[in-house]
Specification:
Shape: elongated
Structural class: alpha+beta
Radius of gyration: 36 Å
Number of helices: 11
Helix content: 55-70%
Strand content: 5-15%
Number of strands: 4
Order of helices and strands: HHHHHEEHHHHEEHH
Strand order of the largest sheet: 1-2-3-4
Largest sheet: 4 strands, antiparallel
Length: 464
């Protein structure tokens, strides 16, 4: 069994580095430099790429296709993609303020005064520009860029969660299929035992009590089958909905073994685990956006300059519009400076500073929650492995005991209570073992989700 200690140590080191970065965040321009260093993506390695497509390593023939369909058609992904497009449009809108605005106009009019009529024809261009001398517009663009990065990372976070949810549901479905097969096999064995009890009753070697007990045990096992089939149908419907389809996927009725993750797969994830999580990096970029908005609000204290001008043609007749002497031009420079605003600018700066503090606190909360999820997943993985190993040995012993008891009962060497007890124990342990195998695979999935597996460092979705 592979030890989880190296992975736990790597997570702890990454946590110390990230939380130190969280603690250094302040709502001021000086904090932007160290924060930008913290938020830099790690270089993609072969281990990163393997972790990004972890679902392809479980060996289930349907899992890669289901994950791909979900990442393409799930409504949550569609909504996150629309949010990313919106953030990009708002970024472009903010960047347009760095450039001049140029417009074209044309007009024609007729005036009449004191029985004298005159025409007026005009055509030209108007331009206006506000030089960003104190960085107010540039800070807005920086904030919008950070919003785009946060939206892109939020999309990656949705993809990570969605891939994990698809895997968990499919593994649960496989576990239910295995438990159903075990219940049906045990039902057949109990029906054989009931038949033996019937023969012994007819031969006068057993009582009606034994025959009824055998029938009751078989009926009790039979009653478990509809409940398992109901749960299978529910998880199949959930998988269909996750892939953006109505709840009917016939291929999910195909029975396959419970997926098993390779022993060393979890160890191949990046050591810089917390920085690889898209939700943590999204929280970092939101802090950068908040700091940029503090700078933007503070720049409102300084003067703004505006240059505007026009160049056009003006004439009394349309035919003479292109003749000499019809060119009209103007140039205007303006300056505005806030003198008294009743504290509006100071209030706006304080509001943005408070927003930056909220973003920093949110980053720390997200990082701490990420640590908790990783620790919980590691504990769950270790416990599920130990439980699966123990139940495997117990189920093997119970199967041998049930076989021996059935054979000895047919020979009259043991009483019927021994047969019933061994069969109940065998069914319970085999059912628990199948559930434990599914739990172990699900624990792997949750570890990958906690470590941010399922996406590539550039934010693009992973392909199987």
């Amino acid at each position: 069994m592979t030890s989880l200690r190296p992975l736990r140590q790597a997570v702890a080191l990454a946590a110390v580095a990230l939380l130190a970065g969280c603690a250094s965040v302040r709502p001021s321009a000086e904090a932007a430099a160290p924060l930008a260093t913290v938020a830099q993506p790690a270089e993609a390695t072969a281990a990163d790429r393997a972790a990004a497509a972890w679902w392809a390593q479980f060996g289930d023939p349907l899992l890669p296709g289901l994950v791909e369909e979900a990442l393409r058609a799930n409504p949550q992904v569609t909504s996150a993609q629309a949010a990313l497009r919106q953030a990009r449009a708002l970024r472009d809108l903010a960047a347009s303020g760095l450039y001049p605005n140029v417009g074209a106009s044309a007009s024609a009019g007729r005036n009449r005064a004191r029985n004298v009529s005159s025409n007026q024809f005009q055509a030209g261009f108007d331009a206006a520009w506000e030089p960003d001398l104190f960085g107010r517009t540039r800070a807005g663009v920086e904030a919008a860029e950070a919003d785009v990065a946060a939206s892109r990372l939020s999309l990656a976070d949705v993809q990570v969660s969605l891939a994990a949810e698809v895997a968990v549901d499919l593994i649960t479905l496989r576990g239910l299929q295995a438990r159903l097969a075990l219940a049906q096999a045990n039902l057949a064995s109990q029906q054989e035992t009931f038949q033996i009890a019937q023969w012994r009753l007819q031969a006068g070697l057993a009582t009606s009590l034994e025959a009824e007990q055998a029938r009751a045990a078989a009926e009790q096992t039979q009653a478990q089958i509809p409940a398992l089939q109901l749960s299978m149908a529910q998880f199949a419907s959930a998988l269909a909905v996750l892939t953006g389809r109505p709840p009917a996927l016939p291929r999910l009725n195909q029975v396959a073994p419970i997926p098993v993750a390779p022993e060393g797969l979890a160890q191949s994830l990046p050591t810089d685990t917390l920085r690889q999580r898209p939700d943590v990096r999204a929280a970092e970029t939101r802090v950068r956006a908040a700091l940029a908005r503090v700078t933007q609000a503070d720049a409102a204290r300084y003067p703004t300059f505006r240059l505007s001008g026009s160049l056009g043609l003006s004439a009394l007749t349309l035919g003479s519009l292109t003749g000499p002497g019809t060119v009209v031009s103007s140039l205007l420079a303006g300056l505005s400076l806030p003198v008294f605003d009743a504290g509006a600018i100071d209030a706006q700066v304080r509001a943005q500073q408070a927003a930056a503090q909220q973003s920093a606190a949110s980053l720390q909360a997200v990082a701490l929650n990420a640590l908790k999820e990783v620790e919980d997943a590691l504990v769950e993985l270790r416990s599920s492995r130990e439980r699966q190993a123990t139940l495997g040995r117990a189920a093997e012993a119970a199967a041998n005991a049930a076989l021996l008891a059935t054979q000895q009962y047919g020979s009259g060497l043991v009483d019927f209570q021994t047969v019933l007890q061994t069969q109940r124990t065998q069914l319970a342990l085999q059912d628990n073992l199948a559930a434990a195998q599914a739990d172990a695979a699900i624990a792997h999935v949750r570890l990958y989700k906690a470590l941010g597996g399922g996406w590539q460092p550039d934010g693009a979705p992973a392909a199987p």
